Protein 1
Amino acid sequence: MNRADFRRGVRDVAPLLLGVAPFGLVAGIAAANAGLDLTQAVGMSVIVFAGASQLAALDLVGRDAPLSVVVLTAVVINLRMLMYSASIAPHFRTFAGRVKAGLAYLLTDQAYALSIASYRAEESVDRVAYYLGVAATLWVVWQLTTAAGVLLGTGVPDAWGLEFAVPLVFLALLVPAMEDGPTTVAGLAGGTIAVVGAGLPLNLGLLVGASVGIVAGLLAERPLEVDATDGH
Amino acid sequence: MATSYADPLVWGVILVIGVLTYAIRLSFIGLFGYLDEIPPRLERPLRYVPAAVLAALVLPAFVTLDASGLAVDKLVAGGLAAIVAWRTENVFATMAAGMGALWAVRFLILPVL
């Protein structure tokens, strides 16, 4: 393994840790609020290792939503990683199955985004070394900050409303996700329906909102495409 | 809002989410050679998953009803954080603006109104 490329991955991910660390703290605090102990909270961060889905699942578990809704919600949130897996797969194709299995476990938004940019910019980069520099660093920081969040979370008064940090993290991720017309339509529709459906039984508001948002995005594609080819 | 699910159920749900999430991650990395590309029928809706899901998580947290009606503190804090998120696309700045505004409205402004 090329040590210089590993170090380069660590260096490239460092500025992103400023966003990941508070996110991990919030995940730990949310776990404590939902009634999980330190072992369960860190266990979740190790086994699931996908922040957005962990936060959504913790919120639902804390409200005693049906476990099938909890699982389905978390899986829908993580479906985006299908795209990352497909996009990065060609770069991993020569590796042994064991290596691929390990690399896949560490796949995250940030690891994908940085690695694919580096692979495209430089043909000669050691793919495993660079990826591990980014992804393993994220893994370690995620586990440590989750644990810190649990220890912190139990000592903070309710009036501070620390759980409000959770949607704020999602908001910061939402803005870049609404990158063009149809994705903006998907966001607006999904959010609006989720607000209207907040009182739905089984806490189904999120799933219904997300589904409507996806359909709205698909419907918004066509007129915009026509506009683009019209030359107006 | 502590859960009333027993420990084994909490562990069970963590495990199931973990296994399914790992299957999603491994999918194309593991199958490359058998399945080289995402089928277009799947790829198009997948493009809208992040925006739709994240918005469905965010908006209901900002626009909420409590005993006295619309929760003003969350609405104001969410709106302000949205502007910061839009201008900076930075997680830390968004959190700082949102929590700062929430506390300002809740502890400084609402008590004197």
Note: The CA atoms of residues 190 and 209 of chain A lie 4 Å apart.
Protein 2
Amino acid sequence: MTETGRILLDPTAERTAATRELAKRPGSLEGKIVGLLDISKARGDVFLDRVQEHLEQRGMRVERFKKPTFTKPAPIDLRHEISTKCDVVIEALAD
Amino acid sequence: MTPSLPDGLVAVVKRDCPTCQLVVPVLEELAESDRLTIYTQDDAAFPEGLDPVDDTSLTMSFALDLDTVPTVLRVESGKEVARIVGWSRDEWESFTGRSGLGEGLPSHRPGCGSKTQDPDIAAARAAALGAAQLRSRRVELGAHEDEMEAMFERGWSDGLPLVPPTPERVAHLLTGTTRNPDDVVAVVPPDLTECTVEKVAINAVMAGCRPEYLPVVLAAVEAACTEEFNIHGVLATTMPVGPVVIVNGPITRAIGMNSGGNVLGQGNRANATIGRALQLVIRNVGGGRPGEVDRAAHGNPGKFTFCFAEDETGSPWEPLHVSRGFASDQSAVTVFAGEGPRVVVDQLSREADSLVRTYAACLRTVAHPKTVVAIDATLVIGPEHSRVFRQAGWSRARLHEELGTLLQIPGTELIRGAGGITEGMPEGFADTVLPKFRDGGLLIVHAGGGAGLFSEIIGGWVGGAIGSEPVTREVVA
């Protein structure tokens, strides 16, 4: 079988990973603004409420966000808002 | 892998072939007494009643390297020992050892083309086979990833859309060269990465090249990555230059390059994509990107692509590559570190003595009227200007010589403060006379449209061993 158009040949010297690199992780959450993203699965909010309590007890600022539906990727505006408001984000997957 | 063949007689047919239909009664006769296996290329039910083997995938047909159907083979111990094609009663009779075959049929009838010979099918097959040989990393796109956007996101683009480099497209492009995909073409700055023919082909696909352009791209990459041309410096400088690719020889005509109207502009695929492919190789293989090693303060639009052919047939002079040591029946690329072009307008000079003074006055301003010796230039002379030199009987050497004389500049005009301009040479140069260009620092090329008393100047960069030397390399298939 021939390969499909979904496969491309890497035009580079192949020095970096073909997949996009993850953002650098902070060494600690000290003084960071933490975003909590609820993906709209049932009772994800319960879990996130508790996470928020713990983070705030440790003196961190928390921002809450919610995707309109868990079935689709977060809308681009929401992703942009999170990236401008927060240093890190925790996404809750509950079921 | 070659599929195994059944012993006995093997026939390959297709319904869409009148000769195959004609011989069906013969195949029926043979099936009665011989061990006969029939493969069918286009219709698994044909011929009816003879229990044909479905070869609509053409696996067996390709393995047998068929040109014609019907083809009949004799197979012993799984190996083909003889074959005949088409229909000829005499041939079939001697091949099968039977007499009286196909009563009532004409004595012979040529066969039809095997389905494997269909140009679309053959090309797809070649591409698939070639694609499997390629060694570059496969980048698998996500199900919801747009391939055009994915290429931008991965940083492969110069800012314009790219043709997705699928394995099939790259394999097809590689048909433009006889070179092995693994051959190393050059070590590409700034990362000093070994660049194979395959990597050049991938970037050439993205740039929009056709296979026949590939040899020119390969020669351009090779020329740009020489120590003398110094693409690292050309890239890293804050000046606006990039590689300008000038192509000479028969290949320019063969691949339809533009050397005439709008020669330095848009609209010709070969000119546009060859220059772009070189820049994409430097970006993607060499790692040379703006804001990183590329520190240009302004850059120039030619850094997307800047490639053209010399107009050799209309030129009063020998082609550029011939003046640089190649034969006129060779093809070659010359790379020059150049900025954007600017026009020289002279609509009144009909005497060589006058026109050469126009050139000198305009060339004087390259980089700065007080800049001497350091910066190179290329002068692209249009046909309506070259006519003046042809009529005067000036050779290219004579033109160089006259320009050299006119561009000897007194130090008093060059020193700091002269003309009320702080820029300039130290005071100590006041008593000297200096040439605008170093020896070999001015290239003269013939190109452009037939109407317009214009030429063009492409200002250069620091010339020679301390900067960049123009480099010419032969284009080989």
Note: The first helix of chain A runs from residue 44 to 57.
